[in-house]
Amino acid sequence: MGATIERRDVVRLGAVEVPYAFKRVPRRRHVHILVNEEGAIEVRAPWRFSLAKAREVLRENARWVVRTLDGARERLAQRPPLITGTRLPLLDASLRLEVRPRAQMDLFAGARKGQGRVERRGTALRVSTASLGEGELRGLIEHWYRREAATHLAARVEHYSPRLGVRPSRVTIRGQRSRWGSCSGKGTVSLNWRLMMVPGALADYVVVHELCHLRHMNHSPRFWAMVGGAIPDYRDRRRRLNALQGRLPL
Ligand SMILES: [Zn+2]
Question: pLDDT tens for residues 200-210?
Fold first, then answer.
């Protein structure tokens, strides 16, 4: 069996045309509908699942899908604008965003055209950019967070690995909306850069959770006992983390 096959489709749910991605995944046993925080829908289905059946599943779950989409849109609309003065969370602190247009001279002075610069100055995160478009700003700020995540989260992995008696083969930083982290059968631990926007204790919980999957590739009682050994209040942290899902500014 090959890799995941994806195609785009549109289904009518009540009064709305809803686009979605249909993914057939090798070795998958059950069909699953995902709605991410951008309002994108994905149907992940077993290998032999047909497109007609995917539509059927969406129609059967139309009420849930539409309600979840509405919720995602509402939260999207509540995201703070990326302008000077907006506060961006960084673990247990926050940074004050400063957006400044980049002077023409600056552009000629060197750096790549169309790009900007992000630097932290104390408690300020200063973004200089020639383009003040929302998308560009978002991209620049995300890039900065990703770099911070690569350093901080790798250090947390280093901290917890010996305590848990595990060792990941690799740590990668990802940015999926729907998950905080994952662990592959090959021992790669993937962590979401958005963990830099939640309190450090909650980010630590995800690090420990994924590291424990190196030992137990499931959510069995033994898995949770291992998580609890390192983080006794993991239930509380998981609950707080779930409450933050989709409520981050980026
Ligand atoms: Zn898990």
Answer: 999 999 999 99
> Which 3 state secondary structure label does DSSP give 23?
strand
Fold of the 146-244 domain: Zincin-like (3.30.2010)
Lowest average pLDDT, out of 60-74, 162-176, 205-219, goes to 60-74
Centroid of ligand 1 to alpha carbon of 182 (angstroms): 7
Could you tell me if 36 and 42 are in contact, meaning their C-beta atoms sit under 8 angstroms apart?
yes
Domain boundaries, the chain: 5-77, 87-142, 146-244
Residue 16's pLDDT is 86
Q: What is the 87 CA–ligand 1 centroid distance (Å)?
A: 31
For residue 76, the CA-to-ligand 1 centroid distance in Å is: 26
Q: Is the whole-model pTM more than 0.85?
A: no
- Residue-averaged pLDDT of the chain: 91
Residue 250: name the closest of 125, 92, 159, 137 by CA. 137
Contacts of 44 (CB under 8 A, 6+ apart): 23, 25, 28, 31, 32, 34
What spacing in Å lies between the alpha carbon of 232 and ligand 1's midpoint? 16
Tell me how far the alpha carbon of residue 13 lies from the centroid of ligand 1, in angstroms. Answer: 32
- More confident call, 37 vs 82: 82
Segment 145-152 shows an average pLDDT of 97
Ligand 1 geometric centre to CA of 149 (Å): 20
Q: Is 29 exposed, middle or buried (0-12, 13-18, 19+ CB in 10 A)?
A: exposed
N-term to C-term CA, the chain: 36
Q: Tell how far the Cα of 179 is from the centroid of ligand 1, in angstroms.
A: 10
- Taking the centre of ligand 1 as the mean of its atom positions, its distance from the CA of residue 241, in whole angstroms, is 14
